[in-house]
Write a structure and sequence with these properties.
The protein contains eleven helices and eleven strands. The protein is α/β, with parallel strands linked by helices. The strands form two sheets. The protein has a nine-stranded mixed beta sheet, sandwiched between helices. Strands 4-5 form a two-stranded antiparallel sheet. Helix 1 packs across helix 11 and helix 5 runs parallel beside helix 6. The longest helix is centred in the last third of the chain and has 23 residues. It is elongated and about 70 Å long. The relative contact order is 0.19. The chain binds iron/sulfur cluster (SF4) (2 copies). One iron/sulfur cluster (SF4) binds next to helix 3. One iron/sulfur cluster binds next to helix 4.
């Protein structure tokens, strides 16, 4: 089972929830602790909470075109086929813009003069190793200045393969853009962490819409709850999004997280609560599979 923990905006406590869930699952099934993927490749920090030891590393990159000007006739076919405007013919010069290139290979395949070769271009690294409580840990790290996180996340997902029956927890980047979609893709469940504010509700709506588009079932965890905010509960009720946990706004939690502690270290009673969340997720997935066939979730209109 693959569970992605995401939030529409940064700073909602997404990593706190994801790492606490990981520790709780490690307590639930010590014979097979989960695999944790930190897909927040622009700012990975889950290793600080999980105390991982990174023992293996691999470079990640794309194959970028390189034009042999001696063979190039400047016909412009490569520029025509490139959807990302990453290659252009300007008079007697054919220019490649690696920062825009998605490494699709179309220009190389369609060049009539075989004037293009592909060269590897590093974008970041993926790393893995054991973490506390037997958790298997892997993360991606995007190089500074690299604009595209998706290839690093995609490679991380391919590289860090779970053993049979092992639960996978993916910690998604914040937001609702392509890196989040790539992280969520292929998940069985999306756990959205939000906070009871107008901003939190706005971003939850966007994140739920992405899940609806991908057909993935969603549950909500409300963090920093401080009194009633009916609009959030109404939204969840209207869309039939189960609220699986409410974490109160508490100074001790904020201080503990700032010191690198997970919620279950600060308040060990949350281990049982996260186990219950996992049980509910399992039941929701089973119900959906039974009633609609594998992989179907809800759809959010509009
Ligand atoms: S398609 Fe090939 S020959 Fe034509 S402009 Fe591009 S690199 Fe040059
Ligand atoms: S590899 Fe694809 S994205 Fe990159 S320049 Fe060629 S056509 Fe454009």
């Amino acid at each position: 089972m693959k569970i992605t923990v995401a939030s529409g905006k940064g700073g909602t406590g997404k990593t706190m929830v994801a790492t606490s869930l990981a520790f709780s699952l490690a307590a639930l099934t010590p014979e097979q602790p989960p695999l944790f993927l930190d897909c927040d490749v622009e700012a990975p920090n889950a290793h600080l909470f999980l105390h991982s030891t990174l023992t293996e590393q691999q470079e990640v990159g794309l194959l970028i075109p390189s034009v042999n000007e001696a063979k190039c006739t400047h016909c412009g076919k490569c520029a025509e086929v490139c959807q990302y405007h990453a290659i252009a013919v300007l008079g007697k010069k054919t220019l490649v813009f690696p920062q825009l290139c998605h490494g699709c290979g179309s220009c190389t395949a369609l060049c009539p003069e075989q004037a293009i070769i592909e060269v590897p271009d590093r974008m970041g690294i993926i790393e893995r190793g054991p973490a506390e409580a037997g958790i298997s840990f892997a993360r991606g790290v995007l190089d500074v200045g690299e604009p595209m996180a998706v290839p690093v996340i995609r490679q991380l997902k391919k590289w860090a393969i779970p053993s049979p029956g092992q639960v996978v927890i993916r910690d998604a980047p914040p937001g609702t853009s392509c890196p989040v979609v790539e992280t969520v893709r292929g998940s069985d469940f999306l756990l959205l962490v939000t906070e009871p504010t107008p901003f939190g509700l706005h971003d939850l709506r966007l994140a739920a819409q992405v899940a609806g588009e991908l057909g993935i079932p969603v549950g909500v965890i409300i963090n920093r709850e401080n009194g009633s905010y009916p609009a959030l509960d109404e939204f969840c009720a209207d869309l039939n999004l189960p609220v699986l946990m409410r974490i109160p706004f508490e100074r001790t939690i904020a201080e503990g997280v700032a010191q690198g502690k997970t919620l279950v270290e600060i308040h060990p009673e949350y281990i049982d609560l996260f186990k219950q969340v996992f049980t509910e997720i399992t039941l929701i997935i089973q119900e959906i599979r039974q009633s609609r066939g594998q992989g179907n979730g809800f759809r959010l209109e509009g």
